[in-house]
Amino acid sequence: MTFSFDLLYEAIVFGILLGGFYAAVSIGLSVAFGLLDVPYVAHPAIMVLGAYCTYVLGGYGWDPVLAGLALMPPFFLLGIGIYRFYYETFEKRGTDTGVRGLAFFFGVAFIVEICLVLKFGVDQRLVDASYIGNSLKLGGMRLPLRMLVAFGIALALTAGLTLYLSKTFTGRAIKAVAQDEAALRLMGADPVRIKQWAFGIATAVTALAGAMLIIIGPVEPMTDRIYIGRTFCVVVLAGLGSMTGTLVAGLILGISESIVLTNFGASWAPAVAFGLLLVVLGIRPQGLFGR
Amino acid sequence: MISSMRRQFLLAGALALATCVAVPAAQAEPPIKIGHSMALTGGLAAGGKAAQIALEMWVHDVNAKGGLLGRKVELITYDDQSSPANTPGIYTKLLDVDKVDLLIAPYATVPTAPLMPLVKQRGKLLMGDFSFQVNHTVHYDRWFNNAPWNDAASWSDNFFRAGKTLHAKTVAFISADQEFAQNLARGAKSIAAKDGFKTVYDQNYPPGTVDFSSMIRAIRAAKPDIVYVMSYPNDSVGIVRSVHELGVGSSVKLIGGGMVGLQFGPIMESLGSMLNGWVNYTTYAPEKTMDFPGVRSFLDRYSKKAIEAKVDPLGYYLPPYNYAIGQMLAQAITATKSLDDKVLAEYMHTHVMKTIVGDIRFGPDGEWAKARMVDVQFRGVADKNVDQFRQSGKMPIVEPKAYKTADVIPFNKAQ
Amino acid sequence: MRRRVPRFWIGAAATVVLAAILSLSRINEYFFFAGYAVLQFVVLATAWNILGGYAGYVNFGTAAFFGIGAYTSVFLFTALGAPLLVQIVAAAVVTGLLGFGTGLLTLRLRGIFYSIATVAIIYIAETLMVNWRYVGGATGLQLLRPTVMFPFATYTRMLFFIMAVLAVVAVSIARYIEVSWIGRGLRALRDTEEGAESSGVPTLRLKLLACTVSGALMGVAGAPLPMYLSFLEPASTFSLNYSVVALAAAIIGGTSNWVGPAIGAILLASMQQIVTVTISSEMNVLVVGVMLVVFVVAAPDGVLGLIKKLTRPRATAGGAP
Prior knowledge:
The complex is a heterotrimer. Chain A is mostly helical. Chain A has a domain at 27-223. Chain A has 11 helices and 2 strands, in the order ααααββααααααα. Chain A has helices at residues 5-35, 43-59, 64-91, 97-120, 145-167, 169-179, 181-186, 191-216, 224-238, 243-264, 269-283, and strands at residues 135-138, 141-144. In chain A, helix 1 packs parallel to helix 5, helix 2 packs across helix 8 (191-216) and helix 9 packs parallel to helix 11. In chain B, 41% of the residues lie in helices and 17% in strands. In chain B, the strands form 3 sheets. Chain B has a 7-stranded mixed sheet with strand order 7-6-8-9-10-13-14, sandwiched between helices. A 5-stranded parallel sheet of chain B has the order 2-1-3-4-5, sandwiched between helices. A two-stranded antiparallel sheet of chain B has the order 11-12. In chain B, strand 1 (32-38), helix 2 (45-64) and strand 2 (73-79) form a beta-alpha-beta unit. Chain C has one domain. A two-stranded antiparallel sheet of chain C has the order 1-2. In chain C, helix 3 runs parallel beside helix 5 (111-130). Chains in contact: A-B, A-C, B-C. Chain A binds chain C through residues 33, 39, 41, 89, 96, 98-100, 102-104, 106-108, 110-111, 113-115, 117-118, 225-226, 228-229, 232, 236, 267-268, 270-271, 274-275, 277-278, 281-282, 285, and chain C through 52, 56, 58, 60, 105-106, 109, 111-113, 115-117, 119-121, 123-124, 126-128, 130-131, 137-138, 240, 244, 247-248, 251, 282-283, 285-286, 288-290, 292-293, 296-297, 300.
């Protein structure tokens, strides 16, 4: 295979765009698992659900980005519902939450997958938009517009969420509940309501991530499985609870995957995210910016 | 005490009931059950659904004429979701639970490949449906393929001849890591070497790949004259879109070759003008050189049913050949007056099968003795219009000479 | 205690004899095709429970060990024409070593991190097989089964019988572990690992033992798969479905006792087979998901727990019943 610096350079640029997308897709999990300690393996499945909802709205002529934004409120409510159920059934009772909570969310992921198969079949679904299929010519490279759109949204999302968590009252309460729940209770705030709100935000963000997923490429019901690896890799590499860490980790994953894709082929791509995850867990489990 | 009137009434009722049961039992013979799975969902569904309509048309036609051997024909279909993981279980169910008499293969190589050892062990006749070289390891003598090709040369000769016309010297291969593409790639690469082409890029990708940007960029960097793509519908669409998005470089004169899916109406419609310039194989095009007797009238009848079912309205690829499967079974069964797999197989090996896609003679491995594939080049295709393909000229045949209706032009000139 | 031991072995022998009688009978062939799948999950669920139920480490990597077992068989069959029994023994050795190795790497991780790490192992194993052309790569490999051995009429019946024997072996091993000092140690470390460590329980050694045995049994369940299907390809072999069904079966049956996973597997896998034949194959996955969620939420101790609750002598408020 011909090796050239041009190719490597293009791979890195593409990797940055891809990495931004991975960061945006993982931010919901960063909040749900990183901050709130919920073993939320159904997160990619909810994202795929968001992608399919975007597809349905696209059938009515909606632009996918607008569809994603419009889906955020209903998904926010969905998130509150999921957390409420999880809290009542598992967290409150305390014992054995790890095993059962994990099994529960795997079950939920399965159910979401199969309901999508029953409703839409196993076929791949795509959306159409003016920026899908065209690219921007920049200095000898052609950058796909769909990647640029996803990258832009990812940056906005990460910046927005970081500001929210550090500047607003509820945002700071969310960070506080992650660090010291007892202290928060002593100050008169209800930790359960705060966690519920945070989980709602995480799920709303996931809806937008789903819209980005189907902008980037075709989606089918089992797409969530490979994203379990990618999102957990990003969240663990970032360090639990760090938003800027999520962006950095996403970029690292995106660039690694892109380089492997270019030099070794698509058959090695799934191993990158999972392999990186194992390496991080083995060497530095608290991640780059972990608390 | 029952009154005499009521007794007569009851007696009449009992007699009528007995008649209703007895008469059908005396007349009805069990139907001939033909079982198969079809890709009604999944990557191959755009073709599978069209093929299914054609098969059902044949069952309807044959039953309207009284069935076979005085019995009605019943088709039992399961959806295999285009996946090879599902077909062994489905065909075991067909044989042991549904107890079918005869088997038709699923559409396409990948879902069919796992079945070859199974049918060989059970001694069942298997009517192939557009598989490629799926019998080359098992060497089963009761396999008969409806597709107008036999070995890799029957696919690649056309494509490489077009390349030679355009003075191409180097070739890049990109193939899916699955049974069809790998069978084809193996053959194509040895033919390329023999014909003097230099390979400058060679990459496999796993079937679920959705992003081809890295591969397209790498191909562009390798500057090939020919890009030979061997793919299934989802990947074919992804690759065409990726080339449109990123460009494949000015060096490329010829691109396409072995892409399944660019023959299905819905896919041609959705890709539209992105298809211009691509050269690809097919089994039928509405050009004057391919007007076999019976095909046009079949396609007209098919089109009406397809439009109703919201399926590929053109039917240029699978439907005529699926109808032919039915015709071949009918001919063999009627001639031998038997449903025995061995007897039918012997008949098909030794006789010419007459179908709406012409006369078919089988070689010893169950493939056509003489191939009849063509390569077409998409020209002047507009977006979002499936009926434009009904007129000739949108996909003129560029190879082989016997069916040619236009000269192949370089890729960048045709866009 | 001494009186109960023979009863288990009588039951085990009876199961083997029953399997033999069934496979030599005239029942419809499809029964053995479906029955093999059910017995396969008995082995997988029992194997999973050794680490998941007894030790509390929720292993999601069942599909990896299962798949590597299948690929070991394919390799030996293609390279050496190895007979089935050799394939099974080899698979046990290979996946046992894999279990030991992954145990060393991952058992330091707690809770969900351990589970996600085991998912990673599945994808890495699959990627390795996808890139190994000799065993077929992503395309897969067709296999011609050897001629069947007398007294079985078909190969599938023989596989059914062999899988029944393997199920009895797996359950016997799980039972031995449960009642022995190993089981006591595993239960101790499941409740509190630091506590067990400080009272002198060799936790690392026990965990590694559980990992190795569990992995080996999962590989054994996968070893006859290539012969069962006459075909093997990576995507469906390394499917997450195997992991979820094994775990669901153990949870549904009850994880505290060796009987639980067997009951759960028979219940769940039979229901899957019935749904596949009567409704569709998607629905069978939905059945798994729904039953898993229902049991995890409402009956976390599984069928065994429900039975215990129902047969518990009711506390009477003063006086005899």
